[in-house]
Amino acid sequence: MAAHEDQDASDLELVRRIKRGDEQGFREMVDRYNARVYSLAYGVLRNSEDAEEATQDAFLTLYRKIDTFDESKKFFSWFYRVALNAAYSRARRRKPGVTVSLDDYVPRLRDDVLAAVAELAAFGDGADDEAIARDLAERAEAFIDELPPTYRDAIWMVDVEEMKPADVAEVLEISLAALKSRLHRARLYVRQRLLEVSVATPGPSERRVAP
Amino acid sequence: MSCKRLILEYLVDYEDGSMPETERAAFERHLGHCPPCVVFLKSYRATGKTLRMLKPRDIPKNLADAVVGFVRARCAKKE
Fold first, then answer.
1. So what's the pLDDT on residue A100?
2. One CATH from 1.10.10.10, 3.30.565.10, 3.40.50.2300, 1.10.287.130 for A102-206
3. Alpha-carbon distances, residue A150 vs A74, A92, A147, B51 (angstroms)
4. CB-based contact, B79 to chain A, within 8 Å
5. Measured between CA atoms, how close is A209 to chain B, in angstroms?
6. Which tens digit of pLDDT belongs to each residue from A22-78?
């Protein structure tokens, strides 16, 4: 908690320096946030070139609009929203991908579906195996891409970026309960899709993912 | 607590530690006699573990320099 507050205070100090036109302050802000912004943009765009350009766009907006930042708020929440907007602005210029309806998946959680014990156990164990886990991670990236954006943002920030749910709710300007609901449904969807591609064989180390 | 309610309504709070103690006890009692839910929990955790592997590790070299150069160039054009 204290570290979080120190970070907020340190961010605010940099914000004030940038507002005064301190170029070195801007440089320090870029050093502090560029990797996190890139990673966040990558979550939306799934392409390194686009993520890099979105990162540049985000910092350009920061530089130009820093005077509009309300210092009573947390800087990172404001800036992550700027970064998300930059990424989505770039995403809109591309051909839209295909997203799914999560309702197609959640109703499959009837009690009787839980009877697929062997398959589920195989997957649970498989993720402890490094090679299997890497195969599955590649699949998971594609499955995240299928999610509606609001769900994709939630799962990317919490489960991939490992941000605190309360912080993510603040960035997305939704309640913590709403964030957790999106997160959970997104996880259930990805889990279900991973199950569909996982193939059980006698031992975890011999199992591979279906092509 | 039914399997469906456990998974759809309670699992996320159980996993992030925000579930009240009485509900947590009921949740764990259910797990104690429901192997399918234990397996479901295992696969849910395995999903989270898999997702953590996706964090981009290859941040472009000189990204910070590229950002600063881009911002300077764009702002110089405006001035």
1. 66
2. 1.10.10.10
3. 22, 15, 8, 17
4. no
5. 13
6. 999 999 999 999 999 999 999 988 889 999 999 999 999 999 999 999 999 999 999
Q: Helix or strand or coil: residue A187?
A: helix
Among chain B residues, CA nearest to A164 = B16
Estimate the share of chain A in helix, then strand, then coil, as percent rounded to the nearest 5.
Answer: 75, 0, 20
- The reply to whether B42 touches chain A by the CB within 8 Å rule is yes
Query: What sign has the CA pseudo-torsion A169, A68, A59, A147?
Result: positive
Q: Does B58 touch chain A (CB under 8 A)?
A: yes
Rg of chain B over Cα atoms, rounded to whole angstroms, equals: 23
Q: A98-121, pLDDT tens digit by residue?
A: 666 666 555 354 444 444 444 555
pLDDT digits (tens, 9 = 90+) for B9-38: 889 999 999 999 999 999 999 999 998 888
Q: Counting one residue from A and one from B, how many pairs have CB atoms under 8 Å apart? A: 134
Show Cβ contacts of residue B40 under 8 Å, excluding neighbours closer than 6 positions.
Answer: A114, A120, B3, B7
Task: Find the residue in A nearest to B73 (Cα).
Answer: A60
Average pLDDT over residues A162-175: 94
Pick the CATH number of A2-92 from 3.40.50.1370, 2.60.130.10, 1.10.1740.10, 3.50.50.60: 1.10.1740.10
Helices A176-197 and A117-126 cross at an angle (nearest 10°) of: 100
Contact across the interface for B48 and A159, Cβ inside 8 Å: yes
Complex prediction ipTM: 0.88
Whether A133 sits inside 8 A of B49 (CB atoms) is: yes
* Distance in angstroms (rounded) separating the CA atoms of residues A133 and A125: 10
Q: Which is nearest to A81 in space by CA: A58, A54, A64, A52?
A: A58
